[in-house]
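Hi there,

I know you've been waiting on this one. I reran it after we fixed the sequence typo, so this is the corrected version. Both the input and the resulting structure follow.
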Amino acid sequence: MKTTNRPDEWKIEQGMSGAVLPVLDMTGPQTKALDPQTFGPLTKNEAAIEAVGNRDVLFAAERKGWIGFVEWENHPEKKESAHKLLKAQTWPPNPEFQLGPIPGTNPVLPGTHWKMWHHAIGGELTKVPEDSWATVLKEKHPDMLHLLQFPYNGEPPKRLVTAKEVTPNSLHFVRNHGGIPIIDKEDYSFVVDGLVKNPQTFTLDDLMDESQFPRMEKTVTIQCSGTRRIEQIRLYPGQGDEIPQAPWAEGAIGNARYVGISLKKVIKACGGLIDGGKHLEFYGADTYFKDDKTMNYLVSVPWSKVKANEVMLAWEMNGEVLPRIHGYPLRIVVFGYIGARSVKWLYRIKGIRSPSPAPVQSMEYLYFPQQVGKHNFKLTDGIQIQEMPVSSAIMSPWTKQVVIHNGKIRCKGWAYSGGGRWPERVELSADGGFNWYTIPVENLSKKRKWAWRTWEYELPCDVEGWVEIVCRCWDNALNTQPPDVRTAWNWGLHVTSSCHRITVYSVNMTRPVTQARMQEFDDKGIPFGPITVPLAFPSQSWDDYEKFWREHDPRDAEDELP
């Protein structure tokens, strides 16, 4: 008998392959099933590509000692040539990682688009994807979770996120927006121009002259606005571009000690801002793409932030020269803001009147209302994300894990609040958020204005079976976290600041029956997990079963005799 069902029909019906579900149009008297978008074969207009010219000449190296760098912002003709190259061919669709299973690979996502775009433009960008990956393998810990191979996005595994209060360089998360340029310190300089009185060029040696610029050293937590995004994806998918919406977990946060100088001192050395300048725009040497257009990575922060000595130029990280993957030779570090504002591979600072109109500032990192999405969103609907809200996460145990304990579950994690606020109280609940236990101060790491606090706590838990452990933080302004993911959901899947919730299977060894059963597992040499595997031995002897019913009421109630 023939069937019209696909082999995976049940999976589709249950929402496990949502990308192939038809859209239901109920605007008329009859419901119509509309097929989802499909993509045809890739095309390539060789004549149009040839007409652009010699790419090795058009996009040749511009500065001695700068490999993989193309200056786009001062060369509209280069932007136009790159745009023609990108429009001359079609590209494969984004991988589906929200409405279907996330690949079980490491790297999780390859970044195919950005690799192809770099290769298509050629010239100085030709080898950037390969050189960048080589830098990842050289500088990062072998246990890093590579969420996106290129541009590189990676976080440490949970067991290592809070292993130390100060995150080792090799384990600090990386959220790159482009390839990693290779820049020699001896050939490095950056310019400060725009709405400043005296535009100047500075070398790293200039900045290190303590007679001109007092040294600054700060412990700063940098957090990606996508931290814990996977919680939104699992329940309510949203915008699905693999670059802005990489499936971050709880490790897209890191705490490091930076050495450098206050940007305020540099602006003052240039005579200050003039002609209504109120913002500083930062230019990164990496190449960024948006809507078939090519550009450098540009964002801005207000002068008020710089004036408060809350923006630094850093060349050292945790007592070592700034790693190349983190912006060597010089990067911006913005205290208390989303990581996207802390530009790496800095080559220009420009005084401007209003926030940067560049795509990363005006089109990305926007927090939309809940009823805004693909069907209706406008850029002006979104709040520009700057300061990070209060947040926290449980690093151990992991969700769906079996925990054998003696009435207390050993938990550890982190808590953070941006904007110069700090975690004042961290609480845990073992019953889904009904009753809360305050983590003692001595179980929290040191309180710092711009840094996270790591914590450990033995959470009382008498209940057995599935329990929901919840974490929440209160900062010094008494801000706390929304109760659940639904209240935090937004189309861009940013800022998952809701209470962190995990479910674990509780096995309480203070219960005599449980203790006896677990001893049976040990005696027979049978592992307890996973819990879904049927019990390999009788749960109760037949004699014990019959004895119980002889001594207690029968299993079935009987009518009383008249």
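Quick highlight: The chain has a mean pLDDT of 95.

Best,
R. S.
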